[in-house]
C-alpha cells in the first residue's frame, strides 16, 4: 500500500480547526493557551483541546500540539505536565523546540511521539541525525532548504521529514532570531514575536555617511509569502512525508482555501491525473498575499523574494469566497461528513434494538422500554427514516438504513430520537480514542533530580576573535579560552599561549563549509583543544568525526537545566547561556548542571542570520553566489524609524544583522560571578575598544570595579537583569 504524503494545516482558532479538517487536511497543528510559538492566536483551552482531538480522530485527521518555545526551569515542569495531559487525551504528537523539554519527554513520557519544530533550526542531514538519536517521529526542516538539499537529506536519513509549502516566510532562520527580543522585549523563541522584520528601514552608506534615497523608509527585510504550488509533486518524489501550511495567525477562510488548493495537487499526483488548479490557486491567493515566491525550493535569480511591503492584501473576490465558505468552518459542516449505517429491529413486547456502524466501529443500543402494539398508531418506515435521519447536529450522514419490524408495532418518536442520539454519541466516543494510553505519573522532585558535583572554579575570561589582528589581544595572563573562526590564519593559533583553544563554528553551516571541515579535521585536532558549535547539526558532525571537546554556543538557546543535561549526555563539556536568559535562569542552571557554563559579557549580538541579501535591492543584484567579492557586503547599516543603526554584513552567502549597542555585563559582573559561572566571554566583532573591555572585565571578575568603561546609553543589559516576555 502506497503511503500518501500528509497535508498538515494550521489552526489558531476553533473555526480554523474545523475549516482545516473539513477542507481535506490530513493533520492539524495547534497550540494550547501556554507554551506555544503563536501566543497571539486564540489557541485552545484544555476542554477545547479534548474536544478537537476527538473531532479530528473521528474524521481520520491527526492533531499535533505545539510546545515549541524555549522554557525556563520555573516553567518546564508545567509544560511536561501539559504534555502528559495531551498524551492521556490521545494527541498524535507534540511539536517541540526546547532541548530540555525533549530530554524530559523521552525520560518521563517516552511513548509520546515528538516532532522537532522548525524553531530547532535543522537545515541539513546532520541536524536530522542529531535528533534521530532521540527517536523523534518527525523533523520539520528549515524553510531555507532547496529541493536539491531536501532530496539529499532524505537520502541520508531515516526519520520522516516535514517541510513548509505555503505561507509567510520569516526573514531569519527560525529559532535564530533575536531582533524582536532585543528591540521590543518580545521574544520569537517565546512565541511573542513583534515582527520587526516587517517594519520600515533605510539603508545607510557607512562610507559616504548618507542614506540611500531610493530605499528610504521601506520594509526592506520583509519577504514575500511562500507558495510551492506544483513543486509539491517533486517534493513527493524527493521523499518528504509531510507538507506544512503556515498560518495559525490567519483565519478559517485562508485555511480552507489553501488546504483545498494543495489537497487537489496532492490527490492529482496519486491518481495520476492533472487537474486545472488555477482557480483554486487564485482563491488561495485572494485570502492573503504579500506576493508569492518559490525561490527557496527552486532558486531563481528572476524570482524576487523581497515583498517591499509589510502586510498582506486580499483579492477583490474575497467577499464572494467568504460567503461560499460559511459552512465549512462549523462543527457540523456539510463537508466531509462520516457515513453511518443503521439497522433497527422493532418487535412487540421487546426492547427496540439499533445497530450502528461507521465502517470501523459498531454499537448496539436498546430502548429502555419495550415496543408496544397499536392498530391505529403503528410506526411506519417513513417515521423511522425521518427520526433516525435527523443527523444535522452530528458529523454523520445516513448511508444505509435497514428496518426490521413487526406489523402493528408502536414506538414513540422520542424513543427513536434517543436511540439515534445514544448510537451516534457512542460511535463518536469509540472512534475518538486511537491509542488507549495509560496515565503517566511523575513528581516535581523526580523531574528535578540531578547528580550535581559541587566543583566551583575561579571565573575566567574567554574571547572570540574575528580577525588575524585580534590575536594580539590575547594575553594569556587574562584570557583562558579563545574561540577562533575556522577562516582565520590557523598558524597564528599555534603561536599564541593560552590554556584552551577552541575552533568557532557559526550557527548556519553550508555543505561547502562541511567539506572544508572534513578536509582539515586532523589540522584542527593538532591545533585546538575543542570546538564551539552553534547548531545541533555541527554538534553531530564534530562528535562523529573528531576527538575535539565540544562547547555549545548561545544559539542553542539554553535557558533551563535540562537542555544542559541533554547536551552533556551527548558529549558537551561546556555551554553558553542563551542571550535571552536572565541571572535567575543562570543561577538555577548552575545549581543543577554538571557542565561548565559561560555568559556573553560584552558583544554586539547577531540579531538575525538570513539567506537573502537586503543589499541586493540597492545593487539590483541577482547573483548571490559571489558575496565575498561584493563591495556592498559590509558597506551598509540599517537605520530604523527611531534613528538607530544596525550593522549588516554579507558572509558565506548569508546576511548577518547586529545590534546597535553591545550587550554588556560591565559594572554588574560581580552579580554574575556570585552565580559561579565559569567563563565570561568577550566577542571582538565591531569593537573598537576590545583591549580595554577585556582589561575591565578581568578586573571585575577579580573583584575590582573599573569606572567609566561604558558610555552612557551606549550599551544594553538585554534580558540579563529582567525577564523576557
From TrEMBL:
Question: What residue ranges are annotated as transmembrane?
Answer: none
Q: Where is the Peptidase U32 collagenase domain?
A: 330-430
PANTHER family reported for this sequence: 23S RRNA 5-HYDROXYCYTIDINE C2501 SYNTHASE, PEPTIDASE U32 FAMILY
Q: What is the lineage of its organism?
A: Bacteria, Bacillati, Bacillota, Tissierellia, Sedimentibacter
Specify the species. Answer: Sedimentibacter hydroxybenzoicus DSM 7310
**Which domain of life does this protein belong to?**
Bacteria
Q: Quote the protein name from its UniProt record.
A: U32 family peptidase
Short name of any one Pfam family annotated for the protein: Peptidase_U32
List the InterPro entries.
Pept_U32_collagenase (IPR020988), Peptidase_U32 (IPR001539), RNA/ubiquinone_mod_enzymes (IPR051454)
Amino acid at each position: 500500500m502506497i503511503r500518501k504524503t500528509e497535508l498538515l494545516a494550521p489552526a489558531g482558532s476553533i473555526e480554523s480547526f474545523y475549516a482545516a479538517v473539513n477542507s481535506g487536511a490530513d493533520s492539524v497543528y495547534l497550540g494550547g493557551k501556554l507554551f506555544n510559538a503563536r501566543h497571539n492566536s486564540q489557541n485552545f483551552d484544555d476542554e477545547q483541546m479534548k474536544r478537537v482531538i476527538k473531532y479530528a480522530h473521528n474524521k481520520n485527521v491527526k492533531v499535533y500540539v505545539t510546545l515549541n518555545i524555549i522554557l525556563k526551569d520555573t516553567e518546564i515542569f508545567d509544560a511536561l505536565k501539559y504534555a502528559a495531559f495531551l498524551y492521556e487525551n490521545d494527541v498524535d504528537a507534540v511539536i517541540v523546540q526546547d532541548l530540555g523539554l525533549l530530554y524530559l519527554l523521552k525520560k518521563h513520557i517516552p511513548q509520546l511521539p515528538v516532532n522537532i519544530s522548525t524553531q530547532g533550526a535543522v537545515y541539513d542531514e546532520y541536524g536530522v541525525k542529531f535528533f534521530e538519536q532521540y527517536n523523534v517521529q518527525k523533523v520539520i526542516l528549515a524553510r531555507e532548504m532547496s529541493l536539491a538539499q531536501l532530496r539529499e537529506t532524505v537520502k541520508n536519513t531515516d526519520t520522516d521529514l516535514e517541510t513548509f509549502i505555503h505561507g509567510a516566510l520569516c526573514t531569519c532562520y527560525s529559532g535564530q532570531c533575536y531582533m524582536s527580543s532585543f528591540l521590543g522585549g518580545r521574544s520569537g523563541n517565546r512565541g511573542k514575536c513583534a515582527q520587526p522584520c516587517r517594519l520600515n528601514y533605510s539603508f545607510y552608506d557607512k562610507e559616504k555617511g548618507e542614506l540611500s534615497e531610493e530605499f528610504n523608509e521601506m520594509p526592506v527585510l520583509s519577504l514575500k509569502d511562500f507558495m510551492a504550488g506544483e513543486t509539491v509533486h517533486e517534493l513527493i518524489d524527493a521523499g518528504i512525508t509531510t507538507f506544512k501550511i503556515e498560518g495559525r495567525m490567519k483565519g478559517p477562510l485562508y485555511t480552507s482555501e489553501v488546504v483545498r488548493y494543495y489537497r487537489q495537487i496532492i490527490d492529482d499526483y496519486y491518481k495520476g491525473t492533472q487537474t486545472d488548479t488555477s482557480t483554486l490557486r487564485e482563491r488561495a491567493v485572494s485570502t492573503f498575499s504579500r506576493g508569492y515566491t518559490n525561490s527557496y525550493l527552486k532558486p531563481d535569480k528572476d524570482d524576487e523574494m523581497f515583498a517591499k511591503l509589510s502586510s498582506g492584501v486580499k483579492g477583490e473576490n474575497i467577499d464572494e469566497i467568504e460567503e461560499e465558505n460559511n459552512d465549512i468552518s462549523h462543527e457540523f459542516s456539510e463537508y466531509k461528513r462520516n457515513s453511518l449505517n443503521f439497522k433497527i429491529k422493532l418487535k412487540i413486547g421487546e426492547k427496540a434494538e439499533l445497530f450502528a456502524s461507521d465502517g470501523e466501529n459498531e454499537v448496539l443500543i436498546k430502548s429502555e422500554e419495550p415496543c408496544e402494539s397499536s392498530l391505529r398508531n403503528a410506526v411506519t418506515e417513513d417515521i423511522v427514516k425521518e427520526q433516525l435521519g435527523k443527523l444535522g447536529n452530528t458529523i454523520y450522514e445516513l448511508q444505509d438504513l435497514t428496518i426490521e419490524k413487526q406489523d402493528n408495532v408502536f414506538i414513540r418518536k422520542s424513543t427513536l430520537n434517543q436511540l439515534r442520539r445514544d448510537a451516534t454519541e457512542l460511535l463518536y466516543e469509540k472512534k475518538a480514542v486511537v491509542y488507549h494510553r495509560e496515565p503517566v505519573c511523575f513528581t516535581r522532585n523526580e523531574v528535578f533530580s540531578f547528580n550535581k558535583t559541587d566543583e566551583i572554579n575561579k571565573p575566567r575570561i574567554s574571547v572570540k576573535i574575528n580577525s588575524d589582528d585580534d590575536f594580539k589581544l590575547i594575553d594569556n595572563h587574562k584570557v583562558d579560552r579563545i574561540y577562533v573562526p575556522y577562516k582565520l590564519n590557523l598558524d597564528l593559533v599555534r603561536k599564541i599561549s593560552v590554556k584552551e583553544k577552541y575552533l568557532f563554528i557559526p550557527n548556519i553551516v553550508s555543505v561547502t563549509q562541511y567539506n572544508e571541515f572534513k578536509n582539515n579535521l586532523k589540522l584542527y585536532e593538532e591545533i585546538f583543544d575543542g570546538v564551539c558549535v552553534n547548531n545541533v547539526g555541527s554538534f553531530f558532525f564534530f562528535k562523529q568525526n573528531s576527538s575535539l571537546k565540544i562547547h555549545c554556543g548561545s544559539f542553542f538557546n539554553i535557558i533551563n537545566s535540562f537542555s544542559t543535561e541533554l547536551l552533556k549526555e551527548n558529549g558537551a563539556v561546556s555551554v553558553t547561556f542563551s542571550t535571552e536568559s536572565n541571572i535567575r535562569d543562570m543561577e538555577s542552571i548552575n545549581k543543577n548542571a554538571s557542565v561548565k557554563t559561560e555568559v556573553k559579557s560584552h558583544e554586539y549580538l547577531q540579531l538575525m542570520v538570513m539567506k537573502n541579501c537586503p543589499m541586493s535591492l540597492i545593487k539590483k543584484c541577482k547573483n548571490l553566489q559571489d558575496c565575498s567579492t561584493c563591495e556592498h557586503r559590509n558597506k551598509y547599516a540599517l537605520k530604523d524609524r527611531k534613528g538607530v543603526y544596525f550593522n549588516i554584513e554579507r558572509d558565506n552567502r548569508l546576511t548577518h544583522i547586529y545590534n546597535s549597542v553591545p550587550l554588556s555585563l560591565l559594572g554588574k559582573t560581580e552579580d554574575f560571578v556570585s552565580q559561579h559561572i565559569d567563563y565570561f566571554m568577550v566577542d571582538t566583532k565591531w569593537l573598537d575598544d576590545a583591549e580595554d573591555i577585556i582589561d575591565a572585565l578581568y578586573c571585575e571578575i577579580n573583584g575590582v570595579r573599573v569606572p567609566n568603561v561604558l558610555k552612557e546609553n551606549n550599551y544594553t543589559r538585554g534580558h540579563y537583569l529582567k525577564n523576557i516576555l
